[in-house]
Design brief:
Elements lengths: L23 E11 L6 E8 L3 E5 L2 H4 L5 E6 L7 E6 L8 E2 L3 E10 L1 E13 L6 E4 L5 E8 L1 H4 L7 E6 L6 E12 L5 E4 L5 E7 L1
Parallel strand pairs: 1-4, 8-11
Antiparallel strand pairs: 1-3, 2-7, 3-6, 5-7, 8-10, 9-14, 10-13, 11-12, 12-14
Length: 204
């Protein structure tokens, strides 16, 4: 009835353990060739002993990491080769599940072919301008270069071309950079006429 009663509690202290886990995320390890192989060769295939790595970091850091990139100096590759690379730990990351990766590279002779009829896309059109292209630039041709195995099945749907409109203002005859990418990292992509810019006009 609300009266205080003396009670002995045993034990007087309790020890509890709480497991603290570090946030983690598994991402692919991506090899990015930089430069060109000498002697008219190209990379035919790249294989890794680890294709993914687990990244341990705060969630705010993990949100900005989708892959771990290994840059491969292609200019030094003269034959089929194998290397061991140390992965670079991104800023803010506590640790990686593996720090080294073995890379096996096979090479072959470079060849080229031209793919026509690729549409130009626009990015960073923040002001919503209507963009007019020169008639010859409405559909472009791209030369793909690599080993026969890597370029033989490429179609126009595998190639993405876009212009960056971030600096475009209302007016005509403005030169903008053009960018080309494709689904195969072992293939080089370039406009068949060698241009790196095209001319556009912008109206409201």
């Amino acid at each position: 009835k609300g009266e205080l009663v003396d009670v002995d509690i045993f034990p007087e202290t309790v020890t509890a353990s709480v497991k603290v886990t570090t946030p983690m995320k598994e991402v692919p390890i991506v090899v990015k060739p930089v430069g060109e192989l000498p002697d008219g060769n190209a990379i035919d295939s790249i294989s890794l002993d680890h294709t993914t790595v687990t990244v341990y970091a705060p969630n705010s850091v993990l949100a900005g990491i989708d892959e771990i990139v290994v840059e491969l100096d292609a200019s030094k590759i003269t034959k089929d080769s194998n290397w061991t690379y140390t992965l670079t730990v991104p800023s803010g990351v506590n640790s990686l599940s593996t720090t080294k990766v073995n890379i096996d590279v096979k090479i072959g002779k470079m060849t080229s072919r031209t793919i026509d009829g690729i549409v130009v896309n626009a990015q960073n059109n923040k002001n919503g301008y209507k963009i007019d292209y020169d008639k010859r630039d409405e559909m472009l041709s791209v030369t793909v270069s690599g080993t026969e195995k890597n370029i033989s099945k490429i179609t126009a749907e595998d190639i993405y071309i876009y212009v960056d409109l971030a600096d475009v203002v209302i007016g005509s005859n403005q030169e903008v950079p053009i960018y080309i990418s494709g689904t195969n990292r072992l293939v080089n992509y370039a406009l068949s006429d060698g241009r790196t810019h095209i001319i556009v006009s912008a109206v409201k």
